[in-house]
Amino acid sequence: MRFGINLPPNVSPAEKDGAQVFEEFLQLSELAEELGYHHVKTVEHYFTHYGGYSPDPVTFLAAVAARTSRIRLVTGAVLPVFSHPLKLAGKLAMLDNISRGRLDVGFGRAFLPDEFEAFQIPMDESRERFDEGVEACRRLWAEEDVVWAGRFHQFGPVTMLPRPYQRPHPPTLVATARTPESCEAAGRAGHGLMMVPSINKVENVRDMLALYRKTYADAGHPPLEDQVQMTYHTYLHEDADEAYRLGKAHAENTHEKLVGAIAKWAQTRSEAYRGYEQIAQKAKEHDFDQQLKENKVLVGTPGQVIEQLEQIREWFGEITIGLTVVAGSMPVAESARSLRLFAEKVLPHFE
């Protein structure tokens, strides 16, 4: 197993302003490299307190690249539905060069109704726009004189500059939430997979992973180093009671922001997101203790977290895990302490 850090800015202006958030995130990124973590990852979201400080993860990751030399950079994820592929492919190729080939590109479909409404893009088009955007980026990176005649974008012949540092292009991953069809499509196309196991039953995640891995192998794609990536809310403390008390408080802070961001699903319907109309109600039924019992959050002493991770590895195999060590108004010193404790007491167990 490999471990990195996930830095979604789930924070409100009343808690921290943007300048403070990004300075703290850059400090944590430098610390993560110093401690031997595998990657730094952040999101693309807009407008809400659930990630809205990060409308462009490429900008933040370029700053991380300037302050580090080894740690990998992961977009978790960029959203092709809101970007022209010429712009998206170009700025990701720039980041790949600035970082000298440390970029992994994670793509996502987007799922927040407020974002689609603001960009004036129908949610029912999201799957087609996603597929078109990802494939256009891959062709722009790998080929010259590209001619593209899609449903939403037409261009060419064009040759993207700069060419990616990694050839034919950076590793690509796609985010999947709930559907086996998404996992199957990712495997067939040769992408890695990004998942958030906290929103699914263990049995469903295992079934989706088995389908993905079989489809990927049957398609004849070469193995990827970090083929499956998952993210977990993480809080460690030497004292078990303090770990529980503070880990729960920070997890619930983030969850409140998620509830606000998805509230419009109660009135939204889309064929491209079947069943999502139920997530607003399900989110209100969130139970931290149940999440902890089911190993959907990594909270406890180092020994307790090792036991959780051993169970996760038994369920899902060798995966790459992103530790979400930030939440709302959490002091950066607490995030740093969790990172150090994990690196000192947990990482050696899995090396």
TrEMBL record:
InterPro entries: Bact_Lucif_Oxidored, Luciferase-like_dom, Luciferase-like_sf. This is Flavin-dependent oxidoreductase, luciferase family (Includes alkanesulfonate monooxygenase SsuD and methylene tetrahydromethanopterin reductase). GO terms for molecular function: monooxygenase activity. Keywords: Monooxygenase, Oxidoreductase. It comes from Streptoalloteichus tenebrarius (strain ATCC 17920 / DSM 40477 / JCM 4838 / CBS 697.72 / NBRC 16177 / NCIMB 11028 / NRRL B-12390 / A12253. 1 / ISP 5477) (Streptomyces tenebrarius). Residues 1-315 form the Luciferase-like domain.
